[in-house]
Design goal:
It is a single chain. The strands form three sheets. This protein has a six-stranded parallel sheet, with helices on both faces. The chain has a five-stranded parallel sheet with strand order 1-4-5-6-7, with helices on both faces. Strands 2-3 form a two-stranded parallel sheet. Helix content is about 45%, strand content about 15%. With about 425 residues, the chain is an alpha/beta fold. It folds into two domains: about 220 residues, Glycogen Phosphorylase B (Rossmann fold), CATH 3.40.50.2000; about 170 residues, 3-Layer(aba) Sandwich (Rossmann fold).
Length: about 425
């Protein structure tokens, strides 16, 4: 398994890399190759968690990096993507020279479906992913709010992706040589034009079952949102939707609700201005950072997770569902495919103002309709248990590896439905 980023102390790509390697090790011996800078946190975590020795005994960690001068120019998203592309190319030949004995080659992360893996060079059954891509941010949600610079940046990045999908011969070879491709959403498979028998729909996100879920406070109805302050995350919609909901409450009810945002980023000043303009300073709390244990407690005590993100995944959705939080999101390729299929809280993409109205109306329904809230909360918890436990992914890995190593191929789907994910099938 090649995993460019592994860090057991982090979430997102790094945490996913760690968990997927460990899940593979539940049933197989694993040769895991990552970058050298990941070695220290891996070794520290192993020493701090001896109870997982049964897994560590199945993993042999190795490290590979490009020359130092190439690492130094790896700055910004495009140069980082170029470095990753070259890393993927070189690591295949580095592994080939090691002459290791193995049965299946699996390229794990980054989760980009437009930068190919070259592990097919090794001549073994090859598994790719989970891979995906962020869709275009709809024009109505970015141009007026964040300006032409952000709009053009988003469109230019899409053009770059399109060129890789359609013009890069190595992307073509990678998808042709892969016996199975894990896709994080429907669009990931559509853009790669994958044959149906190779597609395995699996979100890259997951979480552990909480040890306990404490009783939520009846005094405060906390609406939670977590992430980086960038246009992709839609925090402007979060704040404006909450403000509309808040100002339509009685004074007594206003004292019982608050919006808590955990995160920071380049758009923080812009978001602070929105909070001031909407006159909700007393009801909105922004926390740039807090210890992991405090983040967990915040999830436990929150009532709703508000996540109008435009991304193609949603790492925090699984965690919110694990605590039974109803998730309000757009009905899109990312969070919209991760929440329960029958949830009534998915908002259709529409005009900017209509979207604000729809999110605010959903918040109002959840606040006043306890039966609806309890139904959505139970649905969230059940959906998490069925789809987003890490062990579910390990079970699927075993099935896939067993089948591709026998040359029989593997698919968990009989088409490309929407939403997709059912690891039970």
């Amino acid at each position: 398994m090649t995993a460019y980023a592994i860090n057991p102390y982090k979430g997102s790509e790094e945490g996913t890399g760690w968990n997927l390697v460990c899940q593979s090790a539940r049933n197989h011996k694993v040769i895991a190759i990552t970058r050298k800078n990941n070695s220290e946190p891996i070794q520290q975590y192993i020493s701090e968690h001896p109870e997982m020795k049964y897994l560590y005994d199945n993993i042999s960690f190795h490290h590979f990096d490009l020359p130092l001068w190439m690492i130094r120019w790896k700055k910004g998203p495009l140069l980082s993507a170029l470095y990753f592309y070259i890393w993927q190319f070189c690591i295949a030949f580095w592994i080939k020279n090691k002459k290791w004995s193995f049965d299946v080659a699996h390229s794990v992360n980054f989760h980009s479906n437009w930068t190919p893996s070259f592990l097919w060079i090794l001549g073994k059954p090859f598994v790719w992913g989970p891979v995906g891509n962020h869709p275009l941010i709809p024009k109505q949600y970015i141009l007026k709010e964040y300006g032409w610079k952000a709009y053009l940046k988003d469109r230019m990045l899409w053009i770059v992706k399109w060129c890789f999908w359609n013009l890069d011969p190595f992307v073509f070879i990678c998808r042709k040589k892969a016996q199975a491709v894990f896709c994080v959403n429907t669009q990931a498979a559509e853009k790669l034009r994958l044959p149906e028998h190779k597609i395995i729909f699996m979100p890259a996100v997951a979480s552990e079952m909480p040890l306990h879920i404490s009783e939520k406070s009846n005094d405060v109805f906390t609406i939670l949102s977590v992430g980086r302050f960038v246009p992709l995350k839609g925090f402007d919609i979060t704040i404006r939707s909450f403000a509309l909901f808040y100002h339509n409450l009685s004074v007594l009810d206003q004292a019982r609700v608050k919006l808590q945002i955990i995160g920071t980023g380049p758009e923080k000043k812009h978001l602070m201005n929105i909070i001031k303009k909407e006159k909700v300073e007393e009801a909105v709390e922004i926390l740039e950072w807090m210890p992991r244990k405090d983040v967990i407690e915040t999830f436990r005590q929150s009532a709703v997770y508000l996540f109008p993100s435009h991304e193609g995944a949603g790492m925090v959705v699984a965690e919110a569902l694990s605590y039974g939080l109803p998730v309000l999101c757009l009905d899109n390729y990312g969070p919209g495919e991760y929440v329960p299929t029958s949830s009534s809280l998915k908002i259709q993409e529409s005009s900017y103002n209509t979207t604000i109205l729809d999110f605010a109306a959903s918040l109002q329904r959840l606040y006043f309709d306890k039966d609806l809230y309890n139904k959505e909360s139970a649905m969230a918890m059940e959906h998490f248990k069925n789809e987003f436990l890490w062990d579910k992914k390990g079970d699927v890995f075993k099935k896939v590896y067993d089948n591709v190593s026998r040359g029989t191929g593997y698919s968990l789907s009989t088409g490309i439905p929407k939403p997709l994910f059912s690891l039970e099938k």
